[in-house]
Amino acid sequence: MRQSKLFTKTKKEVPTDEVSKNAELLIRGGFIHKEMAGVYSYLPLGLRVFKKIENIIREEMDAIGGQEITMTALQNPELWKKTDRWNDQKVDIWFKTKLKNDTELGLGFTHEEPLTSIMKNYINSYRDLPCSVYQFQTKFRNEIRAKSGIMRTREFVMKDLYSFCKDETEHNKFYEKAKEAYKNIFQRAGIGHLTYLTYAGGGSFSKFSHEFQTVTSTGEDTIYINEENNIAINKEVFTDELKKELGLGDNFKETKAVEVGNIFTLGTRFSDALDLTYQTEKGDKKPVFMGSYGIGPARLMGTVVEALADDKGIIWPESIAPFKVHLLSLGEDENVKKQANLVYDTLVKKNIEVLFDDRDEISPGEKFADADLLGMPFRVVVSARSMKEKGVEVKKRNEEKGKVISLDELLNLLKAIS
User: Fold this and answer.
1) Cα separation of 43 and 75, whole Å?
2) CA distances (Å), 356 to each of 270, 326, 390, in order?
3) Cβ(198)–Cβ(213) under 8 Å?
4) N or C: which end of the chain has fewer CB within 10 A?
5) At residue 323, what are phi and psi to the nearest 5 degrees?
6) Where are the domains of the chain?
């Protein structure tokens, strides 16, 4: 893509109504647009990142047998009344609306109830189990505090997967697969080294749940990391009793972190309420044993920015960067422009994703600053100096200095890391 054709523009000023690093940098870089508090639109660069994260998640869910669907955002109150979650005293984040005939509806904030109801049409026998179903779907939550950029919003896409098993033993096998799938997601997204499986409160469903927490100084949560076992405990459940139950000593490090995913054992909470049962081999009727597994692509995107950015801007991991290469043409020399266009055409033909800063009347300093802000993994510069040395200057975003190499060497470098 030619940057001169990109309708979005970078901004030097910091948004005055944002306090989070991810919102500041993503808005300045033209990745997102703020509609109102807790509601953001995704612009071309931001959508490319979002879709890459979504595809990583999809691949890992497919790998453990998940089947993708899309469910409705509009919700029937009758289902939620059966589980007592239409109650505003118990669930205070509902967005509710009415049809013209005054029939009340909800905008879904999660989907255990409606999916359990759907599965009643398809689960009848033990032969139908286990199975798992997931979706990427817009959720609506009436958050009191929407101040963490795209990490805590009132409208957002969630990947929610639900598992349906015959019993707890079968569920636990799938649950362990889900743990590994989530670890793979964060590793592939570039923050695996900062993300810990974390024990947390289980709410009304189970004794405890598991969160995946990414270490960052701007995190909302406090966790205690046991580095010997590479796991952590959320401060809300950090007790001597739990440490003893998990077989852990006292070697913990306190740190701030951001929750980037969670998985829950639901048991028969929803299958009992909505009468989702199956017939055993012996002909008995039993409730289906369920689990829930959530992750928000946008929340993960924001967390990557929070955890990896430096004082110059964003640093995207290669796997989710909008483009692998940011190509800069410096100066007004026509030979430089011609060579830069040649490099661009060559990269495109080799199917290498490249953003080409071909803008005229933009100083080299402004182009360098924009490249740092936008955070592509590789910056490639064509200038009078690089042409004199018969090559292009290449620098990784997280490196201090670049080096001049030939175009063939550049292609080999990018091919080797693709």
Assistant:
1) 29
2) 52, 6, 20
3) yes
4) C
5) -140, 150
6) 3-308, 325-417
Which SS3 state, helix, strand or coil, does residue 122 take? coil
CATH code linked to domain 325-417: 3.40.50.800
Helix (H) or strand (E) holding 111: none
Cα 23–Cα 28–Cα 34 angle in degrees, nearest 5: 50
Say which DSSP state 168 is in: H
Q: How far is CA 282 from CA 125, 278, 279, 285, in A?
A: 11, 11, 8, 9
Separation between Cα atoms, residue 137 and residue 357, nearest integer Å:
35
The answer to whether 346 touches 410, Cβ cutoff 8 Å, is no
Q: Return d(Cα 410, Cα 404) in angstroms, integer.
A: 9
Which residues make beta-bridge pairs with 210? 199, 263
| Matching fold, domains 3-308 and 325-417 | no
| DSSP structure string for 42-62 | E-HHHHHHHHHHHHHHHHHHH
CA separation for the pair 53, 92 (Å, rounded): 30
pLDDT at 19: 86
Give tens-digit pLDDT for 91-119: 999 999 999 999 999 999 999 999 999 99
**Using N-to-C axis directions, what is the helix angle for 407-417 and 334-349, rounded to 10°?**
30
pLDDT in tens, 180-225: 999 999 999 999 999 999 999 876 567 789 999 999 998 999 999 9
pLDDT digits (tens, 9 = 90+) for 240-285: 989 998 998 889 999 999 999 999 999 999 999 999 999 999 999 9
Contact 397/378 with Cβ under 8 angstroms?
A: yes
Tell me what the mean pLDDT of segment 293-322 comes to.
98
Question: Which of the listed CATH numbers 1.20.1250.20, 3.30.930.10, 3.90.550.10, 1.10.10.10 matches domain 3-308?
Answer: 3.30.930.10
Per-residue pLDDT of 52-80, as tens digits, reads 999 999 999 999 999 999 999 999 999 99
d(CA 227, CA 145): 32
Nearest to 73 by CA among 155, 161, 131: 155
Q: What is the DSSP letter of 347?
A: H
**Structure confidence by residue, pLDDT tens digits, 152-182:** 899 999 999 999 999 999 999 999 999 999 9
Copy the structure tokens of residue 91: 């669930």
Note the pLDDT of residue 201.
86
Computed on alpha carbons and rounded to an integer, the radius of gyration of the chain in Å comes to 25
Structure tokens at 22: 């991810």
Q: Decide: 68 and 134 in contact? Cβ < 8 Å.
A: yes
